[in-house]
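Reviewer comment 2.1 asked that we show a complete input and output for one of the modelled complexes. We chose the iron/sulfur cluster case, as it is the one discussed in the main text.
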Amino acid sequence: MNTIIEKQACVGCGVRAARCPRACITMTADSEGFRYPQIDAECCVDCGLCRAVCPALKVPAETAEPSAYAAYNRDEAVRSRSSSGGIFRLLAEQVLREGGAVAGAAWNTDGELTHQLVRDSKALDRLYGSKYLQSRTDTVFAEAESVLKSGKTVLFSGTPCQIAAMRAYLKTPYERLLCVSVVCHGVPSPAVWESYRSLLEAQHGAKTTDARFRDKRDGWKAFSLALSFDNGQSYASQHGQDRYMQCFLKNYILRPSCYACRFKNTRADADLMLADFWGLSHIDPQFGDDRGVSLVIVNTSGGQALWEAVREQTTYKAVDLQAAVPYNTAIVRSVPPVPKRERFFETYRTHGLDEAYRRYVRTTALQRLKQRGTWYLFRLRRLFKKS
Ligand SMILES: Cc1cc2nc3c(=O)[nH]c(=O)nc-3n(C[C@H](O)[C@H](O)[C@H](O)COP(=O)(O)OP(=O)(O)OC[C@H]3O[C@@H](n4cnc5c(N)ncnc54)[C@H](O)[C@@H]3O)c2cc1C
Ligand code: SF4
Ligand code: SF4
Ligand code: SF4
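Response of the prediction step:
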């Protein structure tokens, strides 16, 4: 068995494996918990088909000339269960109303995150919210293709590399395929998430029944990771205090391809892009509140039509995308590599997640003091400049 692509380039989408006519490729997790293709050399007849479909080897899609909006769903119940403004739910419901299907990331019965195709509003509940780990694509590309072949619309949602993978998988372009990407910081290792969930399950003496990475009980900006357990107990911690969220946001546990992502910028393969509108208070302080506002980026005419079909159910305003980018650099830039990432994973493998967190990720009292000092200095400088 051999690997077939450099780790830094491979996004783990599984398109080669799904397209090999002889089923010679399997997706196998490495010691960090990320899945990579392994080729069985004895089975392979070197037909070259898999190379032709790999999105990591394709020329990137054209850059789009987008329009952008600040928006949130007027239905407060939907907005509160969503990560930002609850716009995804509106787009998905519109496609379902028209008889189509929607693909997105959801937990399966084994507690793994997989891309699933849903056809009714009830099942759509499973797609709510950002889940901060890589989702497996397994059979979803084939399922989406079969719906498209039957003449129905598919709304495919996911990270920008998953959108590129969906398009690369299809041998012909389908007008009825609409793609909505999330603006993407990077995806954490499913194995690290599994370790963290097991730690919390051991602490609570029960199995997890639900996990929300963007719980808004303390507000949208101070979002919490919240878990429920089957003995009625629960866990919730704001992202700044939670060990897993700190490992994620400090970039220790992302897939290697995320540090030099080829799928940044507004791209014509995503009809729409959704993000958190983090800089909104600097751009339009009157708009929205701390319950979540989305940045909706419209890249294509198909995306425009879908957005126009739902936008009256939102409170929205056209914005200048360039003004929003400095507050959300994930739109255009990859996160920088973390020098101690290798050592983090080494410790994770030998001593477990808690020890790796303690050695490399946790903010020490001295660091906190330094951060506070820098902040006060910054405020003082601004005060002097104003006076
Ligand atoms: C891993 C990840 C990183 C992100 N990083 C940023 C960022 O740096 N900056 C930013 O502004 N926004 C980021 N987002 C997007 C943002 O948080 C919201 O998800 C987005 O704005 C949509 O919100 P919503 O309220 O409309 O709908 P929600 O209901 O919150 O979103 C549901 C959508 O998210 C998709 N989704 C959830 N988890 C995953 C996953 N693991 N893999 C693929 N798709 C998934 C579902 O398929 C569905 O399309 C990220 C999202 C994810 C999943
Ligand atoms: S990027 Fe996707 S298709 Fe290409 S090798 Fe990696 S998993 Fe396979
Ligand atoms: S070259 Fe052909 S047979 Fe070999 S793994 Fe790729 S698709 Fe399969
Ligand atoms: S950062 Fe890039 S490579 Fe990583 S998951 Fe997001 S789109 Fe894919």
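The mean pLDDT is 94. We note this here for comparison with the apo prediction described in Section 3.2.
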